Amino acid sequence: MSAGAGANLLSPLAYYGEPKPPAQWMKRELDQSQLLTPAMLFHAATTPEERSAVVVEALKEKLARALDLEPDYVAAGKRLSDYVLDSLMAVELRNWTRNDSGTTMTVFDTLCVAAIAEVGELVVAKVANTTSNK
Question: Which residues fall in a coiled-coil region (predicted)?
């Protein structure tokens, strides 16, 4: 019997093959979007429109991930409540906006705005208001 024929089928080597040295699997190519976080993009944006777009796209990504949808299925023109968000998800979104943009939104702000696109505008307005008061 050859060495391959007698291999234990439950062994990781049976599924993944011989381990590769770290240099080979660590050198995968990353595009720029994988290197920049939404927070970095938000703070690098130069106009309110760019900042709002960053918030909206990141919010669509988070919502899609939480609901196990493709991000393209999350429409910026729909309300967050249209996606049947519970209060825990609203709290998570509130914490995310605080951590990434440095502004505080209420759960009410998150759930009661007219559309996802307006969440981006609200975050930008609150950041502008916070920085102008300092």
Answer: none
CATH number at 127 reads: 1.10.1200.10
Domain count, the chain: 1
Instruction: With 0.70 as the threshold, say if the pTM is over it.
Output: no
Host domain of residue 22: 13-132
SS3 string, the chain, reads CCCCCCCCCCCHHHHHCCCCCHHHHHCCCCCHHHHCCHHHHHHHCCCHHHHHHHHHHHHHHHHHHHHCCCHHHCCCCCCHHHHCCCHHHHHHHHHHHHHHHCCCCCHHHHHHCCCHHHHHHHHHHHHHHHHHCC
